[in-house]
């Protein structure tokens, strides 16, 4: 796989697939610019070499055709600031404006194309659409790890039209860090799995059982485990059809000698609201009319203790409804424990994208862990052992 460092972009027009799918508020202000910042080294390498960069991305889920709220033009002020130079904008990604602006682009200049998903051909992986995009540049750089698990036109199909296919710095770092955890993790290796559903995490949990020493399970999916073991979960989240599977996973873990850590107590609420009445109860003792929305204080101490003794930590998924301040304590405590293990114990910590990345960044710990992945779904699929189309297209 060619990487950015091994390629000289002088005189080249680089078509760079980035992941600018960033959250915007109602006034189109970016509320989390992590993904934009991540692309700075790749883009600057291209322009500093004497090349020009044509950036392409999707934003949101447009319903087939242009929509104002999903226009990438809203990102221009932030991009101009990030790259320290004016960023030009084409109000289309394959039309005349894109062709003309790309053709007149000079070395050191940056052009942003309009949202790729304004064309349904992008997600369909349409070859003709990919060919039109490819005609705008000389070299294809894929730096969008977060969409590497999709076989879309710009993330995978385009590769066939280029002799030079290059992995950007984000792509390179994501793959290196995932391999570090999967291949040669220092022990003890602890994986922390949170989030709402077991069904989203079955494959990764099964794969991890071959690699980890400890598996901590938190978040909404724990209630399905508790119910399967005969506990009372009140109105908590439940995947009723996954109870059998939950017990099978516990059995597999036992057979493989992996220690499983589940909540000892839960912080419950009488409604799904930050202002609901709260009480802490032991696991399996949630009364009717109440629902578990976070882990309790005994659980926090147990999980912190396990993390503190770990040399490798993989974390994917929050411990509770961390969007509600009153139910964010468990997630924040885990974030603190991971930071402490990293800084004081020399542990390698990989935060697996999505909500975990948001929680770590929200708590201001993003730069105090070893690596924060920009791709939740892509990272999980890579760790499940699946071939990512966006990575395969670079090889």
TrEMBL record:
Annotated localization: Cytoplasm
Catalysed reactions, as listed in the record: (2R)-3-phosphoglycerate + ATP = (2R)-3-phospho-glyceroyl phosphate + ADP
Binding residues for (2R)-3-phosphoglycerate: 35, 117, 150
Pathway: Carbohydrate degradation; glycolysis; pyruvate from D-glyceraldehyde 3-phosphate: step 2/5
Binding site for ATP: 201, 292, 323, 353-356
Family matches, as InterPro entries: Phosphoglycerate_kinase, Phosphoglycerate_kinase_N, Phosphoglycerate_kinase_sf
Statement: the UniProt record of this protein carries the keyword Cytoplasm: yes
Any single Gene Ontology cellular-component annotation: cytosol
Iron-sulfur recorded as keyword: no
A Pfam cross-reference name: PGK
GO BP annotations listed: gluconeogenesis; glycolytic process
Residues at which substrate binds: 19-21, 35, 58-61, 117, 150
GO molecular function: ADP binding; ATP binding; phosphoglycerate kinase activity
Alphabetical UniProt keywords: ATP-binding, Cytoplasm, Glycolysis, Kinase, Nucleotide-binding, Transferase
EC assignment: 2.7.2.3
Assembly: Monomer.
Family designation: Belongs to the phosphoglycerate kinase family.
UniProt name for this protein: Phosphoglycerate kinase
Gene that this sequence comes from: pgk
